[in-house]
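In this supplementary section we document a worked example of the pipeline. Step one takes a protein sequence of length 252 as its only input; no multiple sequence alignment statistics are reported here. Step two produces a three-dimensional model, which step three serialises into structure tokens for compact storage. The input and output of this example are shown verbatim.
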Amino acid sequence: MAVALNTLVEEAERYLGSAKIQDYCPNGLQVEGRPQVSRIVSGVTASQALLDAAVEAEADLVLVHHGYFWKGENPCVTGIRQRRLKTLLNNDISLLAFHLPLDVHPDVGNNVQLARQLDITVEGPLDPENPKVVGLVGSLAEPMTAGDFARRVREVLGREPLLVEGEQMIRRVGWCTGGGQGYIDTAIAAGVDLYLTGEASEQTYHSARENGVSFIAAGHHATERYGVQALGDYLARRFAVEHLFIDCPNPI
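The serialised model returned by step three reads:
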């Protein structure tokens, strides 16, 4: 079956509530392709590798978390930007991208989906007083060492995480997928035993060590693979179209 592109885009925007969320990039339809969609290819980032795979898969629409047209970028259509856009336009493929709306959604959001993968019970936002902080806080069913939790992360995500191990058992966890290392002090104030995100900065190590908490950087790409898959599955069920997630390897 096929669905009108505009109908699919409108439902995705409604479901995510993207119009209400301020972001660093446009959310929604970034490149318009053919008017009907019967096959969606999803991925984390609209890289050339993903676009080439989408062409090979005969996709009508590419759905991603990291799209194009970020604030502060050079707007000129040259280099890799020209090649990426040319691939989409020459093959009449649409690009649908959602950044923060796909981080914060209570069902298909990256943070909620990662919690489900790692068996963390969500308790609430990392900072209830600041809605701009997109992380969450939750608990484990049984306390475990930081090393054991890191092994769980490795088994689930298929990637060796960076671990700064504290001494206490892990019961309460704070997390923010992607590049959320700057929220570590917020997580510490929330009383977590371990804070998990995708990336690490030099000062993250010192914040963890000096505050006596554990820290895990599990990979920006690795922690953000699940929201776009869940959204793609939702749209596929909603409109009886095909959905294929393509994971282009990225060690960062």
